[in-house]
Amino acid sequence: METISGIFDNKGTPLEKQKFTWKEMAGKPISKLDDDAFTRVRIILMNGVETDSLRLKHGIARFNKELRLPLAEIRRTEQHQATMINWLIGADHSPLETTVAYEQVAIEVTAAVAQSEPDPYQAQTYRFGLLEDFDHLYRYSAMLDRLEGKDANNILQGYTDIVPGRKSSEHHRHPENDIRDNYEKNTAALITKIHAALITGAEYQTHDYYQNIGPLFADPLARQLYAEIASVEEQHVTQYGSLSDPSESHIEKWLVHEAMEVYMYASCAEQETNPRIKAIWERFLDYELGHLNVACDWFKRIEGRDPAEILAGPLPKMVEFKSQRDFVRQVLAAEVDLRSAGTAYVGKDKEPKSSLDYRNHLASEGLASDIVSAGYQWAPGGELFRKVS
Amino acid sequence: MATAAKLGTNFTGVQMSPKDTQRLMEAVEHTHPDVAGDDRMLMVERSKHNEEAERIGSVPIPGSVKGMLKSTFDMIKGKSPEVLIDKLGERLAFERSGVRLYDAMIAKVKAMNIVGSDLVKELQHIRDEEFEHMVMVEDAIKTLGADPTAQTPCADVAAVKSIGVMQVLTDPRTNVAQGLNALLTIELEDNAAWELLIELAEAGGHPDLAEGFGKAKAQEDDHLIKIKTMVRRDLINDIK
Ligand SMILES: [Fe+2]
Ligand SMILES: [Fe+2]
Ligand SMILES: [Fe+2]
Ligand SMILES: [Fe+2]
Ligand SMILES: [Fe+2]
User: Fold this and answer.
1) Residue stretches of chain A with pLDDT short of 70
2) Of B11, B27, B160, the CB nearest to A37
3) Beta-carbon separation of B46 and A221 below 8 A
4) The predicted structure's pLDDT at residue A3
5) Residues of chain B scoring pLDDT < 70
6) How many angstroms separate the CA of residue A155 from the nearest CA in chain B?
7) Distance of CA A77 from the midpoint of ligand 1 (Å)
8) Partners of A339 in the beta sheet?
9) How crowded is residue B164: how many other Cβ atoms within 10 Å of its Cβ?
10) Which of A34, A71, A357, B228 is the most buried (most CB within 10 A)?
11) Which pLDDT score is estimated for B65?
12) DSSP sequence for B65-105
């Protein structure tokens, strides 16, 4: 196992040197046409990470007066990091095209995480969620084609399959079947904690994005489709959010989050193909090391513990940003019929009545995810070309 | 600065990833749609929603008593004066946006610094006429006793329609030809809209308004020819 444990020894950029200008934050976007799809995947993912770092630090500040100022100081950087990253998305992306990109992030990154996650239950949870986002991609691709007359593969660039997964109409579960077991903080590997923080943050931003853009659509079916899928993303936040140990202290969670940010920027910098964007990942890697050091100081001061308790030990190689087509197909073939009962994964026939009743009522006046994707088969250039040939 | 079309590493098409595309096609042939039917289901459902929907909004009741009287007076002459008010509101909004759109285009052209070109002057001329039209429509609405500051339903919808044009013109990455093409959309509509407005004013029993609008229509004819010529000139220069 290749490790990056040495990475945390670096002091990074001190907080007072983490400076931005408005113009660089609202800088030049990437090219939707000429940049590699994985550059956009990294951008969307890291915006999710940064917005979650704000969320977590606000949460901690609600419970801790002493930490309010140091957290506010770091949050200011995180806010500007998030801006600089999110503003890289160009305005020629329609909201629905960006949505397709969001699902590509969920599929490819969760698939990478599922394969390197050492805890079998946590890995199973990633595979379970993955098949749902995979299906969302198919429904949204149909919507994009049938609403805007566009080909989702222009966004996906051939890396991700556009076919049904676990049917979106069957994702809606009773909350009691969305809670998962958590890792145990004293025995779990650091990478397990990092994965949980990462995927929870990513799903949170997906939820918030759909929730915000859904009402921008005029088409009633698009509006309803976003309502249906945003609700699933809320379930995903519930599911992934319950993977982490609730007995970790606030500061411990903060430490894990900063370590996750370090690890993710290192992963992005290592694999980025656009030199301008690579420079951003490298710069922010140094910023995050600065944050991590502040968090470590407070951890020592308030908890009297050694950060090495949490940060020591091997980390696997960087998160791999590449097409996970083969893995996704295997999971699809083997696990598409899995359902959840409480915290357990069961066969389709064992799905609890609570979830069935819950979803039957919601769907009793029609399901947009079914209607918009009826008979949809992707073809190069969109389904209309299939009908031509 | 964005100039004419160039060859590059555009990754969007299937020819850029033949192996991946082949594998994607395999997946499509292997995993079939799980919902029976086709894209007509979406159309059926949309129709249902059209039946159930309420209107986007209303034409405001004229604010002044004088206006009320006039409106009543016009009611006797024309069946529904609010139809004309609505379309006048649209024209006002459209011409006002038009001024802003030309401003955006002028900024784009100025960045090009084309020596010896009077493109900026020509655009500025059209821009100023759009401004005159805006004021003309404002007066017309006042004459009818209606409120020129109200956003009428047609004004609202026309603005939704122009969002794309605004995005194209204000995007620093679009070039002059792309901007002109966006303005062509605007001018084609502008032209037909004035033609219609004149007919509506006449049908509504307002020959004086119709006559004044004739001047705007003549200027719009000129805009259309000018923009068409600019688009042509720019692209043919590049292609030769
Ligand atoms: Fe950050
Ligand atoms: Fe999703
Ligand atoms: Fe999700
Ligand atoms: Fe951070
Ligand atoms: Fe005009």
Assistant:
1) 1-6, 389
2) B11
3) yes
4) 46
5) 63-79
6) 7
7) 7
8) A346
9) 12
10) A71
11) 45
12) HHHHHHHHHHHHHSS-HHHHHHHHHHHHHHHHHHHHHHHHH
Q: Kindly provide the b/e burial profile for residues A328-342, where b requires at least 16 CB atoms within 10 angstroms of the residue's own CB.
A: bbebbeebbebbbbe
- Residue A377 has a pLDDT of 97
Q: Cβ separation of B24 and A34 shorter than 8 Å?
A: no
The pTM score is 0.94
Instruction: Establish if A92 touches chain B: CB-CB under 8 angstroms.
Output: yes
The closest of A9, A12, A85, A74 to A45, measured between CA atoms, is A85
* B35-57 pLDDT per residue, tens: 999 999 999 999 999 999 999 99
Q: Which of A155, A178, A179, A171 is nearest to A229 (CA)?
A: A171
The closest of B56, B83, B94, B51 to B186, measured between CA atoms, is B94
Distance CA A243, CA A245 (A): 7
* Cα B180 to Cα A228, B131, B186, B227, B230, distances in angstroms: 40, 19, 10, 7, 7
What is the ipTM metric for this complex? 0.90
Which residue type is seen at B14?
A: V
The total domain count for chain A is: 1
Q: How many residues does chain B have?
A: 240
CB contact under 8 Å between B35 and A35, yes or no, is no
Angle subtended at Cα A280 by Cα A251 and Cα A311, rounded to the nearest 5 degrees: 30
Contact B10, A34 (CB under 8 A): yes
Residue carrying the six token digits 């792309």? B178
Q: Are A298 and A66 in contact (CB under 8 A)?
A: no
Chain B residue whose CA is closest to A379: B25
pLDDT tens digit sequence for B104-130: 999 999 998 777 789 999 999 999 999
Which residue among A37, A159, A371 places its CB closest to the CB of B41? A371
pLDDT one-digit tens code per residue, A90-102: 999 999 999 999 9
- Do the Cβ atoms of A378 and B45 come within 8 Å? no
In which domain, by residue range, is A264 found?
3-388
A67 contacts A60 by C-beta, under 8 angstroms: yes
Mutate to test the interface with B, among A41, A377, A387 (most CBs of B within 10 A): A377
Q: How many CA atoms lie within 13 A of A92 on its CB side?
A: 16
